[in-house]
Amino acid sequence: MRRIPAFYWLIVLLLASFSPSLFAQEDLLPTDYLGKDFYAGRRAALRAGMPDSSVAVFFAYPTRNFSNDVDYLYHPNPDMYYFSGYKEPHSLLLVFKEPRTDSAGISYTEILFVQKRNAQAEQWTGKRMGVEGAREKLGIDHVYNGEAFKNYSVDFSAFKKIIVDKLPADVANGYDKADLYDLLEQFRQKSGYAANNTGRFDNRLYYELTGKLRRIKTPDEMALLRKAVEISCQAHTEVMKAIHPGMSELEIQGLQEYVHKKLGAEGVGYGSIVGSGENGCVLHYMENTKTRIGNSLLLMDVGAEYHGYTADVTRTVPADGKFSPEEKAIYELVYQAQEAAFKTLRNGARFADASNAARETIAEGLVKLGIIQDKKEVNKYYPHGLGHHIGLDVHDRGGMETLLKDMVITIEPGIYIPSNSNCDKKWWGIAVRIEDDLLITENGYEILSRLAPRKAEDVEKMISQKSALDDFKLVLPEPGGKKAF
Ligand code: GLY
Ligand code: MN
Ligand code: MN
User: What H or E segment, with its residue span, contains residue 172?
Assistant: First the structure.
């Protein structure tokens, strides 16, 4: 057999280098996750705000039991995710204000304890990042398995401040001797932590520091948050096109969440709220069990979570395609309240001004419609606040007093008139919330959720559009033969 000259090998290698799939099996995972530079930047910003002689402590969220030996799908602690990128349970991150020196004389300011790799466990619940993976992917040098925390030498009494959230008191003691239960227990012992500790164990400072950072979105975060909002709007729009009175609340929820997943969002940022008629009056209605939405209004408060970042979008639509005069009057009032609030938004504005503008609009409108006699009664039909930050939490961290550039907030006025309310019967059962997600800019705002129709006429127009789902029929086997749904 003839030897292949080295020159040919060189060409093959060169060609192969343009096609990574020849060498490594592609994992086909999304490619737009936040990178290790983002997390390193967040830790640096945190340290810059920490007082002298302090340590910030972040525990993973506990896993939670769903049924018997089945757990809920795990959701990471947003703070742990924000400062490290680590998404697994049973872990602990410490960030030190002053650099420390390890036994090899290497200086460090952060240390992460992760759950240990375990082939058997990974066969059941999926691959773990482990020490090596965390070092490589998260860019933290000092990473150890959780079991190393027990003998990790740190004198917590030497810190003036231990910046830590309230510790969960109901974590189960599992078989693993380095699970969250053990990490918490060892932390309590090492630090002398007790639930009623004040002063040195500072959870007010924890909220202040993390809130100050998390409420201002970086460009990297904005890319993901925009995507979450955009996907949510696409889902709302598709549902508007497909909606008809014969659908059920669960079916609408399924359709919303199908579009999220089709477009790459891993889940929802909160339980989807799909309430027809009177059900819309329950602010966080999540049962969604009404079997026929009928001709009434349908309130859909549904937001996708994309790589940890969640949207929060509400649209209220007439299931039969046309607002009745009463529905339209209430809808217009909520719309005007939103518009009044929008006008106040900009860098440096007081959120209270937006809240007052919306509440005043609704109060005046309800008096005009004869639904209330005195503006002071407004809270009866508008019983919640105007908005909140969004981000890694749907109700994201950070104060709302003064709005700043690069904050992302919701503006979500609503009017809810349950049956037997003290007003003309014709209003009973009408519930409207319109909720948009807005980026605060230097001189105003950007409505990130503008893709989903909001004006009454635009909503009606969208409902009249054809949907790909109009001709979609599920033909399922039934005991008595096949039946089309
Ligand atoms: N989806 C919950 C809220 O609007 O605050
Ligand atoms: Mn909201
Ligand atoms: Mn909402």
Answer: none
* Distance (Å) from CA 304 to ligand 2 centroid: 13
- Which residue owns the Cα nearest ligand 1 atom 5? 395
Q: Which atom of ligand 1 is nearest to the CA of 270?
A: 1
pLDDT mean values, one per 10 residues, the chain (485 residues) = 49 48 70 97 98 98 96 97 98 98 96 98 96 96 98 94 94 92 97 78 96 98 98 98 97 97 98 98 97 97 98 98 98 98 98 98 98 98 98 96 98 98 98 98 98 98 93 82 71
Residue 84 lies in a domain: yes
Q: Within this chain, do residues 109 and 254 fall inside the same structural domain, yes or no? A: no
Residue-number span of the structural domain to which 141 is assigned? 17-213
Report the domain count for the chain.
2
386 Cα–ligand 1 center, Å: 10
Q: What are phi and psi of 315, to 5 degrees?
A: -130, 140
* Same domain (yes/no): 370, 221: yes
202 CB within 6 A, ligand 1: no
Q: What is the pLDDT of residue 25?
A: 55
> Are 238 and 209 in the same domain?
no
Does residue 472 lie in a domain region? Answer: no
Judge if the beta carbon of residue 435 lies within 6 A of ligand 1.
yes
Q: Which residue has the tokens 């609030």?
A: 341
pLDDT at 198: 66
- Cβ(436) – ligand 1 distance below 6 Å: no
Q: Is residue 248 part of a domain?
A: yes
Task: Please tell me what DSSP assigns to residue 390.
Answer: -
Backbone phi and psi for residue 415, each to the nearest 5 degrees, phi listed first: -130, 130
What are the two backbone dihedrals, phi and then psi, of residue 353, each rounded to the nearest 5 degrees?
-65, -40
Give a yes or no: residue 28 inside a domain.
yes
C-alpha to C-alpha distances, 420 to 127, 206, 249, 373, nearest whole angstrom: 55, 45, 23, 17
* 236 and 168, same domain (yes or no): no
**Same domain (yes/no): 135, 227:** no
